[in-house]
Amino acid sequence: MTTVDQRPASEFENNDQKPVGHGRMLRKEDPRFIRGKGRYCDDVQLPGMLHLAILRSPVAHARIVSIDTSAAEAHPKVKAVVTGAALAEMGLAWMPTLSGDVQAVLATDKVRFQGQEVAFVVAEDRYAARDALELIDVEYDVLEPVIDVRRALDPGAPVIRDDLDGKENNHVFDWETGDEAATEAVFAAADVAVTQDIVYPRVHPAPMETCGSVADYDRIDGRLTLWSTTQAPHAHRTLYAIVAGLPEHKIRVIAPDIGGGFGGKVPIYPGYVCSIVASIVTGKPVKWMEDRSENLTSTGFARDYIMRGEIAATGDGRILAIRTNVLADHGAFNGVAAPVKYPAGFFGVFTGSYDLQAAYCKMTAVHTNKAPGGVAYACSFRITEAVYLVERLVDCLAYELKMDPVELRVKNFIQPEQFPYKTKTGWVYDSGDYEPTMRKAMEIAGYDELRAEQAERRARGELMGIGVCFFTEAVGAGPRKDMDILGLGMADGCELRVHPTGKAVVRLSVQSQGQGHETTFAQIVAEEIGIPPADIDVVHGDTDQTPFGLGTYGSRSTPVSGAAAALVARKVRDKARLIASGMLEVSVADLEWQKGSFHVKGDPGKSVTIQDIAMRAHGAGDLPEGVEGGLEAQICYNPENLTYPHGAYICVVDIDPGTAQVKVRRFIAVDDCGTRINPMIIEGQVHGGLTDGVGMALMEMIAFDEDGNCLGGSLMDYLIPTSLEVPDWETGFTVTPSPHHPIGAKGVGESATVGSPPAIVNAVVDALKPFGIRHADMPLTPSRVWDAMRGAPQPP
Ligand code: MCN
Ligand code: CUM
């Protein structure tokens, strides 16, 4: 079923059919955030707490000859200095990564990227810990680094991972999907085939809050409490139990308020492990907080894909096949969060929103002497890269066919009656109705008028560009049979308790980093059981207080935990119905539910509210036979499939012909995430993601010099956009519910980050059409645009 709601947002969102649940409710968490009263990791203060600082490698590749810690140990405020050798004695020098590789907690043999953890100091205060780092003397024997990813597999390239048995090169994996032979046959017979090399540069999620942790190991009862900046507290707890050998029931992981994660807080970082070790060694609570440079140079990067894309079509613009070859730079340790049986989100959607005859992808990942990472930054497991590839390729094809990019897309859309649609790589898109979404974006933009204006401006020598992107995402990992992290299945628990007075607490396994879960999950439950959202408390981010689940990433909270919350509320409602039948002395079949109360069919005057029922469930007196006291339930939800949100984005840019500076004049984003729980929060998610897109398309890149020095160690060098660089966003929506989600909702948290870079780059390339340019690589800084205008070769 597909509904394209054409009413203005305000009307839809204040629909009086929805008095309790879904709607434009202000965020419950904001009173504390806007008053500066959030409780972040660095706000945790414990009696006797010590501070930890990490010594990091100044070079990208070197053998450690010796480490002298004696001067640091002599510092009057220093309590401990720990090196990799000391960790090795405890069996803790290496830890598993999310991809089943291992990563050094502290380097023992070699350093493999600039910024790698080499030793740590624990001291009475943060300043003393930092000062003492300078007293540690490390002798390095510098080795040739591997920086250019294209050279990583050259014969004779230095082997980075000589720690791994029998490793003789820098190869990580080869993965493929689709049908190579069938795709080749379609290409061979096609009228047109276009090939384009496309780079998605290494970028950083750059959250406002850097990473950190406070570990508190209690030597008396052997319990470890860890406050940490994590997007996945339960998964982390299990991994700590496995790595450190601590019993899992004695570990409590708390993710307090988090100042942005964007994927960068999915992995376990060495710093977290160091703080745990430090607390065990000293018997005191130990805090570790990164500074900005440490965050930018050592925590999980994103993207870094070098792609060769090919697209085949008929002469009149019927797209037949897409083929791509990807070279992925995974850095020194393979820390990509990829489910064991699920190669990459890339494979799920690189065929885009189009009905193809064949597709094939081959991907090779390699090690380089750069920081590990790979999941981060609103990517849904590399969907960002896939959408960029296909949406750039379609524009390259439009360029060659001299077709309008919208017309070409619409002509090839998967049609509404084809859903559920099985792609040529075997994934099933759950629902979609693409053309109305595209038309709506064109309507808001005034597409035809914009093209007319562009023609006039071009005639005057002005550089105006209009860029289009139409994306389909796959978000909401599981189901557990297909997806896991290190063998932990991707399903989510949820628990709901209604207290005697009718107030409720819902406990989630996912954890918010700014997405407003305290509000939207209260709304989901409110909609199902009729208790107002203000009376529902959302508890999350504490393994002692919440059921097991795999955490927040891949925009999975709404698709997975949101479904769990709706279903657990329905379970409670079912029990409430039994109790109501006793209270009203009618059979269950004679009861009707209406937003918070049961009434007798045909007699609305005879009714009980959910609050009455809650009191009865806990109160004196008999309940119907077989009904236990209390009003609560727990479930574990295993999604049937991913959800597939889509969107149509149109970007308008002007380029200054004298300075090559790109200005984003307008940006229209029409998103379809199925049923919308809180339209204001969705808008916030979209605004944030669009701003991310301006950053990646025009400004951001983690660059290295040939020695492997990271050139973007501060926000002076690693540019991120501010309100000055972005236009007033123009948003719209359509609603195509997910058929398998209990309330029809799809995820939206990453949509705009995924969909905006191709729209912006397509707009810039469109503006540069008079120069005969078909492609230019991000970030489209003035110097790159200038070079493109002058026909200079692209940088590597
Ligand atoms: N929502 C809704 N209706 C829908 C879908 C979502 O009202 N149909 C609401 C949700 O209830 C939730 C928010 O929108 O409050 C985002 O929901 P969802 O799409 O399920 O995504 P998650 O909550 O799982 O958030 C993760 C996603 C990811 S993976 C990244 S990366 C990212 C993003 O969220 N990181 C963020 N947005 C972020 N926003 C902030 N402020 N900070 C981050 O770190
Ligand atoms: Cu890939 S960033 Mo989000 O999925 O946490």
Notes on the structure:
- The structure is a single chain.
- α16 crosses α17.
- Helices cover 28% and strands 24% of the residues.
- The chain is an alpha+beta fold and 796 residues long.
- The strands form nine sheets. The chain has a seven-stranded mixed beta sheet, sandwiched between helices. It has a five-stranded mixed beta sheet with strand order 9-17-16-15-10, with helices on both faces.
- It has 20 helices and 32 strands.
- The two termini are 47 Å apart.
- The site of CU(I)-S-MO(VI)(=O)OH cluster has 14 residues, from loops.
In whole angstroms, the N-to-C terminal distance is: 47 Å
Largest sheet: 7 strands, mixed
Which runs of at least 5 residues are low in confidence (pLDDT < 50)?
Answer: 1-17
Bound molecules: pterin cytosine dinucleotide, CU(I)-S-MO(VI)(=O)OH cluster
User: What is the number of helices?
Assistant: 20
Per DSSP E runs of 2 or more residues, the count of β-strands stands at 32
The average pLDDT is 95
Percentage of residues in strands: 15-25%
Taken from the alpha-carbon principal axes, the silhouette is globular
